[in-house]
Amino acid sequence: MADQPVSPTQDKYYFLVRRLHSLTGLVPVGIFLCVHLATNATVMAPGEPGAMFQESIERIHALGPLLVPVEIVGIFIPLLFHTLLGFQIIFTSRSNAQQYRYGGNVRYMLQRTSGMIAFVFILYHLWQMHWFGAGLGGGAFELHDEAGVATGAATTAAAIQSAWWVVWAYRLGIVATVFHLANGIWTSLITWGITIRPNTQRVSGYACTALGVVLCAVGLGALRGFATFDVTSADPEAVMSSGTRPAERG
Amino acid sequence: MSRTLEVKVLRQADPHSGSHWETFDVAYEAGMNVTTVMQRIAANPVTADHRDTTPVAYDACCLEEVCGACTMVINDRVRQACSALVDTLLADGAGVIEVRPMTKFPVIRDLVVDRSPMFQSLKRVKAWVRVDGYYDLGSGPRVTRQEQEEAYPLSRCMSCGCCVEACPQFNDHSAFIGPATISQAVLFNSHPTGKVDRDDRLAVLSGVGGIVDCGNSQNCVKVCPKDIPLTDSIAKAGRDTTTYKIRQWFGR
Ligand code: HEM
Ligand code: HEM
Ligand code: SF4
Ligand code: SF4
Ligand code: FES
């Protein structure tokens, strides 16, 4: 509608860039979210508390020096691209869900809201858990302490138990990102022209709802596992200072 | 039974001045629609607080929901004034009838808007069948019953603007051409003779303001008075532009 001048280059790559937005949401970031929540849910596995979680993370960290480039190329760059373009998309939309209260319109509004919540949550979460938050007083997650004792689950749990509201921040983050992914899969099936008829879209809606409910249960279950994890069972020194000490990578 | 309707109208003298609300008392008549209400106001342009005013400017033509000229926002929902029955509005629980012009088009005066942006974008996607020459081209290609049944619903579009008015992606911060135009491009791409210009249409649909600017809120299909399956067209356009772009990149 707006008569902004459009350069031929912009016209040429516009489609590609927007299709990449859809793809990055689905493949690297979407799949990461599923795997990540499932991995975290292993904290509830029977046996030695946190042992299976430790084992799962060790398997990932077995990449050694390759881990950082894999994280950057596989997760952070696609996520950053998706986020930046997501904000650009949000700035060009004018939600009217107050005026036209149709289910689809409310989901359209929630897709944008949940994206913004996910953005804030991920920033907070990376600061809190990931080693590059360490210099800023975060970076709580440590796979091992200095003595080589496994502390993956204990440090994560300590961070989640560090204040009463942290669990609520995670609940919100999990619900928002899972909704965003499930609804995003539903819209992506239209975007790519796979579901065309209203009936097909209704069926895909049920499937995406089911996926969302399962993924939410997995995520919230994992969170419960960490929130109720007995942190005193781990090395007390590592746990007590885990929120503040710069982490060394295990 | 004599009964008075409270009618609020958002007025604007010309494209450049600001807008303000005026309230009118209009005598209720059985079976009246919002166009009738505007006629009654025009016959007696006096506001509820007894001030003389100008008649409310409005558009109307067919009076049977086929031209789209009378499209406006009535009680917060975009629709045609000629098919908006006062009884229905009252039954929906409205005590007041509130009428304002569409917000996505420039206002010319009061409820009259300039819908030419719709026609500009129809031109961009060549929403017509090119029949070249004045000589006898012979009979056209055969169209199956099934193709007719797919195409007919799309052909009912009257460019009224309801769909773009309700579309959150169609606004002055975006270059989006809107659902009606996408659907017309899909219609003419499905036509055996219209297919000649298929790639030209797909080029526009895959450019800035094209199909990727749809955010899948599906308001358009909900408000379309002609029940046009706009979201089917949008998904088809999503598929066709993808294959079109792949053909382009790989040198077809
Ligand atoms: C947890 C990480 C995220 C995942 C798994 C994810 C996934 C997705 C998926 C699958 C889609 C659907 C694409 C389509 O319709 O074709 C989508 C759309 C969208 N995402 Fe994300 N996303 C994430 C984070 C974000 C963030 C941080 C933002 C930034 C605010 C964001 C903003 C958006 C927007 C605005 C859309 C709608 C795009 C459209 O209507 O075309 N997302 N996302
Ligand atoms: C049950 C809730 C969650 C727990 C316990 C949890 C735990 C963790 C931990 C311990 C790490 C650090 C891993 C490492 O450094 O190797 C991490 C990294 C990360 N988390 Fe979560 N997380 C949760 C939910 C989420 C959610 C909902 C998202 C949203 C997308 C998310 C996104 C990320 C990202 C992007 C990273 C960095 C990726 C990487 O290190 O490879 N997490 N998480
Ligand atoms: S598609 Fe429907 S709502 Fe949109 S302009 Fe055509 S008739 Fe009006
Ligand atoms: S589905 Fe797309 S075109 Fe239709 S109202 Fe929503 S954003 Fe607009
Ligand atoms: S006057 Fe033609 S649609 Fe109302």
Describe what this molecule looks like in 3D.
The complex is a heterodimer of chains A (250) and B (252). Chain A has 250 residues and is mainly α. Chain A has one domain (8-249): Fumarate reductase/succinate dehydrogenase, transmembrane subunit (3 helical TM bundles of succinate and fumarate reductases, Up-down Bundle). Chain A has eight helices and no strands. The relative contact order of chain A is 0.14. Chain B folds into two domains: 4-113, Ubiquitin-like (UB roll) (Roll); 116-249, Alpha-helical ferredoxin (Fumarate Reductase Iron-sulfur Protein, Chain B, domain 2, Orthogonal Bundle). Helices cover 34% and strands 14% of the residues of chain B. Chain B has helices at residues 34-43, 86-91, 116-124, 145-155, 162-166, 179-190, 198-205, 219-223, 230-249; strands at residues 4-12, 19-27, 71-74, 77-80, 96-100, 107-109, 112-113. In chain B, a hairpin with a 6-residue loop joins strand 1 (4-12) and strand 2. The longest helix of chain B has 20 residues, at 230-249. The mean pLDDT of chain B is 95. The chains are: A mainly alpha (250), B alpha+beta (252). The structure holds protoporphyrin IX containing FE (2 copies), iron/sulfur cluster (2 copies) and FE2/S2 (inorganic) cluster (FES). One iron/sulfur cluster is lined by residues 68, 157-163, 180, 183, 224, 226, 228, 230 of chain B. One iron/sulfur cluster binds at residues 68, 157-163, 180, 183, 224, 226, 228, 230 of chain B.
